[in-house]
Structures are given as structure tokens and as C-alpha cells.
Design goal:
The structure holds two protein chains of two kinds. Chain A contains 25 helices and 19 strands. By secondary structure, chain A is of the alpha/beta class. The chains are: A alpha/beta, B alpha+beta.
């Protein structure tokens, strides 16, 4: 049992010494992305290869008879972020990164470690310049990042509590326990840590409110219900560094006087649930979590709650209803959860990333934290960079960095040399930004000014082949499905907006529809209780403002500039190529094709259902799709 | 997720399992969702009779339990197939072509419009909002196993192997 900070530091020292004795450490990414690409087989393969050659060793600093070793250790790590290039394998201490590693490569990798060389073909090759980067930190995808919340992700084995301690883990809570709760809150207030879940409300202010409440029980809830399509930062933290989430919750619990915490995790994240549960058990066994943390009077217990699939449960009061066993429907505020939350008791709900930052702030201090980012939005923000960029994955950048830097420097620009069109930020609550807005800085306030928001941090890059009208319809469809139905404007308004958008992408829209979209959208914003409804029209309103031309093309010209919308596609038979064989007319399920044999056939666009059967049937490639 | 092979008839409720689950999770109202999750995992749906028994055990009305069961996407009132295929239609997957993959699956397992589970009970096909594996878009999961960078051809081959496996049993 660990009862003092000195004991933690002792483990840290011994673990790091044990690590130094090893010749090399192989980190195999075990995040969801790399697991899907086959990293578990690579891990097993490396393990078997090392054992076969008698090179394998484990880092176990708690063994009293720790023996000096010069072997190689192999561990699973959390997400390295560069999911697209997975399975990823990194060789420490040099920091060599191998990409797309398959089990057949393990022999060569072990050879290279023994001989001190590199496996050239597995290194990252820049797709543009073909430059080869042996070390992870030199790769452009990593070079421009600053890692605070993701500090340990991909660096340590998330299932080894000692590895966390070796990286200063649990010293934040030890430090907090040496202060008064009020002093802890002041630290977070001074650091101006703003909620990373989207709203950007200062965490310290929330804590102050909860701390001032008199109650026999208070709760800390970690919001891991990351439901925004296109966002996976919280999942990566829970999977890759679960102890930092626990530590953040403990610090928050101490600060407000709570003794119980819940982590609410999406049901779609089974690996995160497993890792968090293991972390809780390990921390309890080590005496770092549970009754009398580190020998103090402070007790804190954490339980994982699995969500059951409802996007609206990311909203604080809906999340509370869900934990209480009810339908996850939001309720009016005030009272805010910090006053009356779970079972009517003062409750603090912080996002996963916010809590991971809390641990780092306590360890590294306020001044360090404020030296990163902007004065109004200190620190960093993680983003899930996806869509049509060369390098997709999980990134973390200082607040105040521009969208251009993220898309072009880290993301490596648009795939296949196509043209940038827009970046969708903030998921179904956010907006689409255009090329002219690429110099906007990523922080809470600048984005709000242009009608977008950081949201949870999804950044989906779109190129000329993406139809923004279709994307707006996609988000509206999502929101419409996820609206809990409580507020009429959200329930019915989003349905009407979806119907209008559907009409437009089907080619049946009118110009009046555009005004109607704005009118209904504004009403949904005003007439909804929670954030889901209040922000639901954002994707539509922002694309209407920035990409009105594309809406007009769909309505007036009956044309989808990106060539995506099925309803606006037409099939035409080229009179030059058509031999008049009548095959197409025979396969057409609706009898839309007619003509005389041996002379060109024609398609009746009114009857055509755009199934494409004729295109497949034609032997002369005479039928083309135009949009 | 463990997939039980037996096809559960509505009358064949395992009362011992229900009792044990309720005992493990408790009878506070907060236990309702975890209990329903356990039942869903075992039977691949929530049998009506089970919901009524849970309501009684927890001192809730059957309507309350039904309300919760129909609110959350994880719960199903009809039995799901042996293989639950989830096609991610999150933003990243959508932009990179998840719908053609979805269409290919429906065509492959011969799902006609409006149905989500095949007549032989082998497959259920669903779309989900986001599986959080956007770097591998488009993504499909089959009973929690993640398949990344899917194409219509690749998923058809995967289903072929599953169908062979299913036919052997």
C-alpha cells in the first residue's frame, strides 16, 4: 500500500532505472484503430520472436530482486494518434516509428534493434516529398503538436499503473492533498482551465459553486459520452491514459468535498470501459484510490457507468437522468448540477480531456499551463482530424493555432492533390469554415465569433468532392434521430429542416426553402431547452451563409457541383457510342429506355430511377453519369 | 460480446439468470439500465416478460421500463441476429463512403427495405453515429470486432466467411 508521495517517487525512480537497463523498449499501439488494423498479432509476434532469441525482458520494478538486464521489453501502449498508418510500433529510447507493421515484419524489426539499424521500408515516407523520417518527433504530423492531455497516450502501457507513476502519475493528487481544497480550486481558477467538452466554461468556477454547497454527499462525474460523429479524443485518453482521468477526478473530488465519482462512458467504447475498470482496481490495490487516499482523511470511490446509446446523454442533466436509471432527457437549468445534480446532490460534471488537464496542471503548475495557448484560452486542445486530409488521426495543438496550420502542416493537405473546400468543426453543433477562414485561430472565442465552435473537437476536412448541402442534411438527420423529443421546436423543427434539406438534395428544392430553413432554424435555436437543440441548426445556417452558391446550384440549376447527390444525377446515352443493341432497355426495371434497334437509344429522365443497371449492362460504355 | 447460439423463444425465460442479475445489480432505480443491458446481451433483445419481471423487482411501472427500453438505441424489442453488423455513418465515414458499404451489405445478406434482421436470424445490419475510429474510415464492426477502411468488395468477402461459419453450425 502506498501512503506517501515519497513512495510514489520511489517507484518512479526504480521503474525508470529498470527501463534504462533495458536495451530497448518496443511500444505497440493498442488503441482501437491499430487493434482493428491488427496490432495484437504484431504484439504477439514480437513477444514470440524476442522469447525465441532469448532477448525478452519485463520491466517489473516492484520485484525486490530486480536483476540488471540488457534485454528488450515489449508493451502495448495507448493511441499514438496516427491511426491511418497503423499498426504503429515505436522503438525506444531512440523514438523510431514504424508504420503499417505486419506480423511478418517482426523478425526484421528485432534484427534492426540488435544491430542498431533501421527497417527502412517501414519508416514514414512523406507522400509529397518522399522524404523519410525515422523518428516520430520529426514527422510533420507530430512536429507541430504540443501534448498536454495526451502527454502519456502512446508513451506508456495504459494497463500498468507503475508506468503511469513513472511519468509523474498520482503526484498531482499527492500535491493536492498537501493543500487545502480552496487552494486547489484557486490553482484551477488561476490556470483558467476551460471545459474541453465544448462550451468552454471555466472548470474552476464550476468547482467553486459546488464547493460552497452544504450537502452530506457530492458527486464528480466524468463525461465520457463522446457522441459527436467524427470525434474520438476522449476515447483515446480513456484507452491510452486511464489513470490520468482517475487522478483528475480525485483532485476534483477533494476540491469540492465529494467522495464518489462516476465515469459515464459510451457503450460503443468497450475497450475504454475495460481499461478504466482495470485502472480503478489497480489504483485501489495500490492504496491510491478508495478509503483514506495516501494515508489522508480523503476517501474517493469511482464507478464506471456504461451508456446505452443516446447522443443527448452528453448533455449534463440528461447524463444525470441516465445514471439515475431514467430516460436521458434534459431538464431546465437552473438549478445547475453544481447545486442540485445527481440524486439532487451537488455534482460536478467535467469532460475527460478537462480532467486529464487537471492532473497535468497540478503536477506541472499553473504558470507552465498558462505559458501554452492564448490568454483567454490557455493550454491545448485535442482534435480528431479526419476526412479528406493525407494524415488523419488524433492531434493536440496549443490553443490559438490556425486552422491552416492544422490542415496543411499536420494534416499534410488534401488527399490526392485535390482542392480544399471546407472544414467542419464542432460536429453537429458546429459549422463549416471556408478557405477564406483558414487563418481563424482555434480557441473558444474566435470560433464562436464566426458561428462555429470547438465543440468536442471533431475536425472533418472536406474537398471539392464533398457536397456541403449533403453534409448539412447528414448532420440534420443525425440530430433529428437523436433529439429526445422533449421540446417541440427541436423535435418537429429539426424534422421539417431535414425534410427541406432532403428536398434540396433530391433536386426538388425551391428558393423559398432557403428562407424557410433560416426561419425554422432560428426558431429551433430559441425554442430548445438544451445544447442539442440550441446548436442543431448551426451546420445548416453556417453552410447557407458560406456556401449559398452550392444550395443555389442544387435548386436553380438542378446540379450538385460535387457530383455527390444521387437525386441530381442523370444518365445519358451517348449517341456516338450506342450501337442500338437494346440490352439497356431490357435491364431497365422501370422501362425508361426506348429506341429502335440498331439506332441510338434514349433515357426518359422523368421515369429513370438512377439505379445504374443500364450502365452495368452496356457493353459499349455508351451510358454516362452526369451531374 | 458473447453470442449465445440458442434461438430464444419468448416463453423460454431463464428465471435463474434474471434473479441472479437483479441480485447482482441491486433493486435501486439506478440499476435498471445495467440490468436491461445484461438481458439484452444474453437474449440479443429484451423479451416483454423479462421487462415486466424487472419492473416488479425494482418497484417500477412496466411503462417506465418500456420507456427506458425504447429511449436508448442499445436496446431492441425484437431479437437481433447472431452477427450484428454496425456500419459507422459518422461524419468521417460518411464523407469517405460508408453508404455504399451499407448498401453492399444489405444486398449481400438480402435485406429488403425496412428490415434490419435477416429471416434466418443470422445477421442484423445497423448504422451507428460514430464508432470513434475515424482514422480508419469507413469502419464496420461485427459483434464488436472492428474492420477499418472497408469497401463494398471487402465487406462482401468478410460476410462470405461468416455465412460459411454460420452454415456449419
Amino acid at each position: 500500500m502506498i501512503t506517501t508521495q515519497g513512495q510514489i517517487q520511489d517507484i518512479q525512480k526504480r521503474y525508470n532505472e529498470a527501463l534504462e537497463r533495458a536495451k530497448a523498449r518496443i511500444l505497440v499501439c493498442a488503441g482501437t484503430g491499430c487493434v482493428a488494423s491488427g496490432s495484437p498479432v504484431v504484439y504477439e509476434g514480437l513477444m514470440a520472436e524476442l522469447k525465441k532469441r532469448g532477448l525478452h525482458t519485463t520491466i517489473d520494478c516492484l520485484l525486490e530482486d530486480e536483476h540488471a538486464t540488457s534485454g528488450v521489453t515489449v508493451v502495448n501502449s495507448g493511441c499514438h494518434g496516427f491511426c491511418e498508418k497503423g499498426p504503429l510500433v515505436r522503438i525506444e529510447p531512440e523514438g523510431i516509428l514504424y508504420t503499417k507493421v505486419q506480423v511478418g515484419d517482426v523478425g526484421e524489426i528485432v534484427d534492426a534493434i540488435v544491430e542498431g539499424t533501421l527497417v527502412e521500408r517501414l519508416l514514414y515516407h512523406d507522400p509529397r516529398t518522399n522524404e523519410v523520417f525515422p523518428h516520430e518527433h520529426e514527422i510533420p504530423f507530430y512536429r507541430y503538436q504540443t501534448r498536454v492531455a495526451l502527454h502519456n497516450c502512446g508513451e506508456i502501457d495504459p494497463e500498468d499503473i507503475r508506468a503511469y507513476m513513472a511519468h509523474d502519475g498520482y503526484q498531482g493528487v499527492a500535491k493536492a492533498l498537501s493543500m487545502t481544497p480552496q487552494q486547489v480550486i484557486e490553482q484551477i481558477l488561476n490556470a483558467n482551465l476551460r471545459g474541453r467538452g465544448g462550451g468552454g466554461f471555466p472548470a474552476g468556477r464550476k468547482w467553486t459553486i459546488a464547493a460552497s454547497q452544504q450537502a452530506d454527499q457530492k458527486y464528480i462525474i466524468c463525461n465520457g459520452d463522446e457522441g459527436d460523429p467524427g470525434a474520438f479524443m476522449d476515447r483515446s485518453i480513456m484507452e491510452g491514459d486511464p489513470h490520468s482521468v482517475l487522478e483528475g477526478m480525485m483532485i476534483a473530488g477533494y476540491a469540492i468535498g465529494a467522495s464518489k465519482g462516476y465515469i459515464y462512458v459510451r457503450a460503443e467504447y468497450p475497450l475504454a470501459v475495460r481499461r478504466l475498470e482495470k485502472a480503478i482496481v489497480d489504483a485501489q490495490e495500490a492504496g491510491l484510490l478508495g478509503s483514506n487516499v495516501l494515508g489522508s482523511d480523503f476517501s474517493f470511490h469511482i464507478q464506471v457507468k456504461e451508456g446505452a446509446g443516446a447522443f443527448v446523454c452528453g448533455e449534463e442533466s440528461a447524463l444525470i437522468a441516465s445514471i439515475e436509471g431514467q430516460r436521458g432527457m434534459p431538464r431546465p437549468k437552473p438549478p445547475f448540477p453544481a447545486v442540485a445534480g445527481l440524486w439532487g446532490k451537488p455534482t460536478i460534471i467535467n469532460n475527460v480531456e478537462t480532467l486529464a488537464n487537471v492532473s497535468r496542471i497540478m503536477i506541472r503548475g499553473v504558470e507552465w499551463f498558462k505559458s501554452i495557448g492564448t490568454p483567454n484560452s490557455p493550454g491545448t486542445k485535442t482534435f480528431a482530424l479526419t476526412g479528406e486530409v493525407e494524415n488523419t488521426g488524433l492531434i493536440e495543438v496549443p490553443m490559438g493555432c490556425t486552422i491552416e496550420e492544422v490542415v496543411f502542416k499536420i494534416g499534410g493537405g488534401i488527399r490526392g492533390g485535390r482542392k480544399f473546400k471546407a472544414v467542419q468543426i464542432g460536429g453537429p453543433s458546429g459549422g463549416c469554415l471556408t478557405e477564406d477562414q483558414l487563418d481563424i485561430t482555434l480557441d473558444f472565442d474566435s470560433l464562436q465569433k464566426v458561428g462555429a465552435m470547438i465543440g468536442s473537437g471533431g475536425l472533418v476536412v472536406m474537398d471539392e468532392k464533398t457536397c456541403v448541402v449533403e453534409v448539412a442534411r447528414f448532420f440534420m438527420n443525425f440530430i433529428q434521430n437523436e433529439s429526445c423529443g422533449k421540446c417541440t421546436f427541436c423535435r418537429e423543427g429539426t424534422l421539417q429542416m431535414l425534410k427541406i434539406l432532403q428536398r434540396i438534395v433530391d433536386g426538388n428544392g425551391t428558393l423559398e426553402d432557403l428562407d424557410l430553413l433560416v426561419e425554422v432554424g432560428e426558431m429551433v435555436q430559441i425554442g430548445s431547452l438544451c445544447g442539442l437543440g440550441k446548436t442543431a441548426p448551426n451546420p445548416v445556417l453556417s453552410t447557407l451563409e458560406n456556401f449559398r452558391d452550392e444550395y443555389l446550384a442544387h435548386i436553380v440549376e438542378k446540379r450538385c457541383p460535387a457530383g455527390v447527390c444521387q437525386g441530381l444525377k442523370r444518365f445519358v446515352i451517348s449517341a456516338d457510342k450506342c450501337k442500338g443493341c437494346s440490352r439497356c432497355a431490357k435491364v431497365c426495371p422501370v422501362g425508361a429506355i426506348s429506341g429502335e434497334v440498331r439506332s441510338p437509344f434514349v433515357i426518359d429522365v422523368e421515369k429513370c430511377i438512377k439505379c445504374g443497371a443500364c450502365v452495368e449492362a452496356c457493353k459499349f460504355m455508351a451510358i454516362e453519369e452526369v451531374s | 460480446m458473447v453470442i449465445t447460439d440458442q434461438v430464444v423463444e419468448k416463453k423460454e425465460l431463464d428465471l435463474d439468470f434474471l434473479t441472479a442479475t437483479i441480485e447482482e445489480k441491486g433493486t435501486k432505480s439506478a440499476a435498471l439500465i445495467p440490468i436491461l443491458q445484461a438481458i439484452q446481451e444474453k437474449y440479443r433483445y429484451l423479451p416483454e416478460q423479462a421487462m415486466v419481471l424487472v419492473a416488479q423487482a425494482l418497484g417500477l411501472s412496466a411503462a417506465t421500463v418500456y420507456g427506458v427500453a425504447t429511449f436508448y438505441a442499445q436496446f431492441s424489442l425484437e431479437p437481433k441476429g447472431k452477427y450484428v453488423i454496425k456500419v459507422c455513418d459518422g461524419t468521417a465515414c460518411h464523407v469517405r463512403g460508408s453508404l455504399p458499404v451499407y448498401d453492399a451489405i444489405c444486398k449481400k445478406v438480402k435485406l429488403v427495405n425496412g428490415k434490419f434482421t435477416t429471416a434466418d436470424g443470422l445477421f442484423t445490419v445497423e448504422t451507428v453515429s460514430c464508432l470513434g475510429a475515424c482514422g480508419l474510415a469507413p469502419v464496420v464492426t461485427i459483434n464488436d470486432k472492428v474492420y477499418g477502411q472497408m469497401t463494398a468488395e471487402a465487406i462482401t468477402m468478410i460476410i462470405d466467411t461468416l455465412e460459411e461459419g454460420g452454415a456449419q453450425q
